[in-house]
Amino acid sequence: MSGWSKDVACWIELENGQPSRASLELLGEAAQVAQAQGGQLIGLVVADPADLPRQTLAETLGRYEVDRLEYLTASGLAIYSTEAYCQALTQGLNQIEWGLLLLPASPDGTDLSPRLAARLGLELVSGCIQISLTGPDGLRFTRPLFDNRLHAVYESRANQVLATFEPGARGQSLPGRLRMPELYEQKVTLDTSRIKSRSTGFIPPDPARVDIVEAERIVAVGLGLTYPAGLTLAQQLASQLEAAIGATRPVVDKGWLPFPRQIGTTGRSVTPRLYIALGISGAGQHTGGLKGAGTIISINKDRTAPMMALADLALVGDAAEVLPLLLRKLAARRKTRRVEAEALEAQLETSLVAGRG
Amino acid sequence: MPNEITNRFDMIVVGAGPAGSAAALVAARAGLKVALLERGEFPGSKNCSGAAMYGTKLINELLPNFWESAPVERYVTRRVLSFVSDKASFSVDYRNQDFAEPPYNAFTVLRPKFDRWLAGQAEQAGALLLTEVVADQLLRDQAGRVNGVKVRREEGELYAPVVIAADGVNSFLAKQAGLQKPFKSEEMSLGVKEVVNLDRETLESRFGLTGNEGLVNEYVGAITGEACGGAFLYTNQDSLSLGLIVQISSLVENKIPAYDLLDRFKQHPSVAPLLKGSTRREYSAHMIPEAGYKLVPKLYTDGLMVAGDAAGLCFATGIYLEGINYAIASGAAAARVAVQAKRANNYSAAFLQQYEAELQNSFVLKDFKRYKHAPEFVNSTRLQNFYPELLCDGAQELFTSNGQPKKKLAGIAWRQLRQKKVSPWQLAQDLWRGGRALGW
Amino acid sequence: MIKIAVCLKQVPDPASVEIDPLSGQLDHSRLAYITNPADSAGLALALEWRQLFGGEVLALSCGPVRVERTLREALSLGADRVIRLENNGGNETSPDHTARQLAETLKSWSPDLVICGNRSTDRASAQVPGYLAELLGLAQATRVTAARLDLEKRQILAERKLEKGRRESLSLELPALLAVETEIARPGYATLPGLMAAKQATIPVEKSQAPANPPTVRLVEMRPPRPRPRQIFVPDPDQPAAARIQAILNGGAAVRAKKSSPLEGSAETQAERLLEFLENKGYLEPSSGQD
Ligand SMILES: Cc1cc2nc3c(=O)[nH]c(=O)nc-3n(C[C@H](O)[C@H](O)[C@H](O)COP(=O)(O)OP(=O)(O)OC[C@H]3O[C@@H](n4cnc5c(N)ncnc54)[C@H](O)[C@@H]3O)c2cc1C
Ligand SMILES: Cc1cc2nc3c(=O)[nH]c(=O)nc-3n(C[C@H](O)[C@H](O)[C@H](O)COP(=O)(O)OP(=O)(O)OC[C@H]3O[C@@H](n4cnc5c(N)ncnc54)[C@H](O)[C@@H]3O)c2cc1C
Ligand SMILES: Nc1ncnc2c1ncn2[C@@H]1O[C@H](COP(=O)(O)O)[C@@H](O)[C@H]1O
Predict the structure, then answer these.
(1) Neighbours of B153 (CB within 10 A)
(2) N or C: which terminus of chain A has fewer CB atoms within 10 Å of its end residue's CB?
(3) B344 or B317: which carries more pLDDT confidence?
(4) Which chains are adjacent to chain A, needing at least 3 Cβ pairs under 8 Å?
């Protein structure tokens, strides 16, 4: 391998033929590093040659300081596959000089990067939130540990190293002035005998079934509710608020809801914007899974329940009484809204009719 | 040890607190095959963290020079009793350098570490410690004698001719055996406790301690407000344990959340400066049986003995807050009896009765009898609020320099009593009750 | 019959992790360890499949003596065999080194399937599975939330988690590696005899021969998180208008209202308050995605 290169290579992930948000964000960081080192920024795009908007892509990426764009193409590369993309990138990377390879820490980037690092026999720093230079020939990577409660700083003096960059760490970069990158296209030869996994389709998110880990709103159920009547009320509230349903462990243990709905240290950690606790005492093992929650509402009979102390809105009361009233009010509200909207429409219509007449 | 898995033991101990671990240690040492069951993830994981441990002599008998290997925090050389009113406090400060020498008088400990260590000693002696195992039910033979427990797991039966219930306050097993009646709320206290970090250097200079010396400060008076109880503050290596013990009935009666009281205590002018710069590390709350001897149930039945808090052997009355020592002593005594029972192959109530006899003769039940009136006295309104105020106001008069000639102490006391409308008769009566409860 | 290896990592219980906010010092003395939750779920899947198809489950963990607890737990739950791999580096070796150690042991055992957690909760590198799959030449699927095994076809159908609730379905040929999420399966409870046997078992140790290459990437500093100045803030379009405005005013920082004290009142009042609160926070606006 030749000596140390100052050039920074980036795998640019495509989404519907366009660079993904995470890739564009990554380019911001990459450009900064390349510039500080006085190196080039090389974009690597893996794609099916038949289905590649070469020009539009180049024009987009040219606004993100990409100096050189490598299209690595072969049929069968339209959809991400670990092995095929690993082969494509390995071949592409062999043709260029580079010191640092960046990938977005997206689902596919995270899947691909360790496999690629192992194949190249290199080290990888994953989930970085900052990359900078240290001295003339060293790179400095900052990455979170313990759920972002601690930052670890690593230094690399390797000739070549890989890193993934956490989406959202930097904020999206804005497109700048267009500077057309140099364009290259490499035909990749795939060893299909090594490709042992295949994508067979994509499943869209189901709002009612959305994983609580990814949910923006959660209505969570504790033992303070009855079964099945109380649970049904909670589910109605959840569907009204387009929220996912969560639960405490005893609720899951009783089989009211399946395990993936369990929030807490032995369940899942969630990060919703809105979290409504119904009849939940707020034991440490439960709230341990709530550290990333935004607004918290708690309804509990017991004003001293720990959950109440955590809540932005803590209502002392019987959930079995409050919920039906709330649902009724929500329904009534929707109805008035609809009536108002209809009235407004009717009014508009009459005025239109009047105008016409 | 052969890896043969059997569910038959010579003795089963439920609860790896101080009582259970001491029992397991003693019995395992005597060669009994012991199972020690603990519902927590590890022994002590469920315990309120900071404590002052007074059973030093006793533990030393079980584990000579334990302080060399045990995770003790500090040995106590200074004990302070403070009477507090809203703004003032009046303290009795006792310091004894003799307490700084082995075998020491008392230690401060952090329970999760200490309990774990003690259970480890039992394991080393050969007991089988099983954690995350909750005993759910006593098993009995056809004659109705306890002969094992069932735990909340599949195939959860464990058998032994003798079971020791050391499962803490509100002992499920003692209740199931019909040994313990449900507690009344005025017999129960709620302990709330916090451990706060304070760097070692600040701590030592703030409390006038050197090396591993430690302080125990107990408080009575305005801190618990209308509610009956007391407060405490102990020094650990680089943290403080502080908290309150409040009678549950009086919390309910006065509708005060225990957290508020703890905050009030922390903000008290005599406490707040001690906590400056500290950060909260943990918080916990726990029930304590507090009404002393009255609460001690029958301690045995066929195949079962009850030890520690499960037996109501906890002494928590205002200025006294001891349970670990009684727990260890009773656990060890129960185990000794179990060892004899095995030798005699007799596990009947008639034989196990020796356990109670042994406790009667040891300091355990002697203490409890001696202080049997303490709970009522300590929780009386006058001791809780009136005398602390009296002392503080009296001291205020004594120490205020306002150009007036100084009065003799007796005069001040007298005037205070008059102002507060206490009859000399009442005072005499309280003194007598106080003396009976605490002094003799 | 299927041979499944499960890689278990012991990690600090997040609840026991205390970090000095000023110095970034981690209080090691207070750490309590648990099995990485995703790994426990992976073990549960392995045991389920062994139950269905027969075979053998081997659990591995690299680490110091304390990881024996994790392996005992695996035994108590039904793993047939466990091995502890002694680190020959420091306490926390780099992910690629861990993977090399695991690969060394697994090569000779040649499992049909290796199950890892998708990522560990401490360093969260999510690297070990990919490295390991490459070193062993296995097909891989990461972020797996559901899986079905067809032993006759020697094929696994897996569902893989993408962003915002999307899923990808994959088919993999055995031998393969799955890096699973916690929802893949529910960890079971050990029976009492299982627990007792595990408690008394001796845990075999293997010392790694894998050379501890001096890592070229070195940890140089641990510090409390300092958010980096974000360049541009783009409010999330999925948020209701009120929240977007608030977010812009806050420069994107998470907003946390002051904790209120519990409010008493009749059920009617409480329902009214809740409604009002949801309304004021914009949660009753129809979300932008739907009409
Ligand atoms: C090792 C271990 C791991 C654990 N892991 C988890 C975990 O991951 N997740 C988890 O959730 N738990 C976990 N737990 C259990 C946890 O300790 C608590 O027991 C549990 O969270 C309590 O659930 P809860 O709040 O539903 O029930 P409870 O504690 O019984 O609380 C019910 C609450 O409802 C209130 N209430 C009653 N009736 C009404 C009413 N009509 N209206 C309104 N309020 C009412 C009560 O005041 C009470 O506060 C774990 C425990 C252990 C030992
Ligand atoms: C706030 C507070 C402060 C205190 N301060 C002091 C002090 O400073 N000094 C002092 O000497 N004493 C103090 N005490 C009292 C002391 O904590 C107890 O007296 C002592 O812990 C009793 O020991 P034990 O072994 O009987 O019970 P515990 O220590 O309560 O142990 C019982 C064990 O049994 C386990 N267990 C319970 N049920 C089951 C079951 N069904 N199956 C399996 N395991 C089970 C529990 O998890 C626990 O580990 C304090 C108490 C409180 C609440
Ligand atoms: N020390 C280890 N021993 C065994 N398995 C490990 C170890 N470290 C990581 N793994 C496995 O690799 C997965 C991902 O870990 P990580 O790469 O650290 O995020 C874990 O969930 C484990 O299954």
Answers:
(1) 20
(2) C
(3) B344
(4) B, C
CB atoms C192 and B157 under 8 Å: yes
Mean pLDDT (whole number) for A254-261: 91
Centre of ligand 1 to C-alpha A246, Å, is 13
Q: Where are the beta strands (DSSP E) in A129-203?
A: 130-134, 138-145, 150-156, 161-165, 182-187, 197-203
* pLDDT at site B205: 93
Of the candidates A160, A25, A12, A23, the one whose C-alpha atom is nearest the C-alpha of residue A88 is: A12
Share of chain A above pLDDT 90, in %: 69
- Ligand sitting nearest the alpha carbon of A314: 1
Q: Any alpha helices (H) in A257-298, and if so which ranges?
A: 284-287
A117, C96: Cβ pair inside 8 Å? yes
> A315 has which bridge partners?
A299, C263
The rounded distance, in Å, linking the Cα atoms of B58 and B52 is 15
| CA gap A225, B427 in Å, rounded | 54
Helix (H) / strand (E) element for C275: namely helix C267-280
- In eight-state DSSP terms, residue B438 is I
Selection from A55, A51, A59, A66 nearest residue A12 by Cα: A66
Whether pLDDT at A81 is above 80: yes
pLDDT in tens, C97-147: 899 999 999 999 999 999 999 999 887 789 999 999 999 999 999 999 999
Q: Name which residue sits closest to atom 19 of ligand 2, judged by CA.
A: B323
Q: Work out the average pLDDT over A282-307.
A: 91
Q: How far is CA C102 from CA A65, A210, C216, C221, in A?
A: 41, 35, 21, 28
- What 3-state DSSP class applies to A87? helix
A105 in Cβ contact with A22 (< 8 Å) = yes
Structure tokens at A266: 């032995």
Distance CA B211, CA C56 (A): 56
**CB of A84 closer than 8 Å to CB of A101:** no
Tell me what ipTM this predicted complex has.
0.73
B382 Cβ below 6 A of ligand 2: no
Q: Considering CB atoms only, which of A210, A265, A312 is closest to C15?
A: A265
Q: Which pLDDT does position B386 carry in this prediction?
A: 61
How far apart are alpha carbons B341 and B326 in whole angstroms? 22
Could A266 and C37 be called an inter-chain contact, meaning their C-beta atoms sit closer than 8 Å? Answer: yes
Decide: pTM greater than 0.80. Answer: no
Q: Is-contact B156 B276, C-beta < 8 A?
A: no
What distance in angstroms lies between residue B190's CA and the mean position of ligand 2's atoms? 13
Residue pLDDT, tens place only, C154-213: 999 999 999 867 899 999 999 999 999 998 999 999 999 999 999 999 999 998 776 666
Looking at the complex, does the CB of residue A172 fall below 8 Å from at least one CB of chain C? yes
Is C28 part of the contact surface with chain A (CB cutoff 8 Å)? no
Six-digit token pair at A253? 């243990």
With 80 as the cut, is the pLDDT of residue B348 above it? yes
Which-ligand-closest: CA of A143?
3
The pLDDT score that the predictor gives to residue B1 is 41
| CA B391/CA B398 separation, integer angstroms | 10
Distances (CA, A) of C189 to B38, B114, C75: 16, 28, 12
Q: Which long-range contacts (CB under 8 A, 24 or more apart) does B197-206 make?
A: B197/B238, B197/B239, B197/B278, B197/B279, B197/B280, B197/B281, B198/B238, B198/B239, B198/B240, B198/B275, B198/B277, B198/B278, B199/B238, B199/B277, B200/B237, B200/B238, B202/B277, B203/B235, B203/B238, B203/B239, B203/B240, B206/B274
The whole-angstrom distance between residue C140's C-alpha and the CA centroid of its chain comes to 16
Query: Residue B186: pLDDT above 80?
Result: no
| Phi, psi at C62, each rounded to 5° | -95, 130
Rounded to whole angstroms, how far apart are CA atoms C31 and C33?
Answer: 6
C246 touches chain A (CB under 8 A): no
Digit-coded pLDDT (tens) for A162-197: 999 998 788 777 888 999 999 999 999 999 999 999
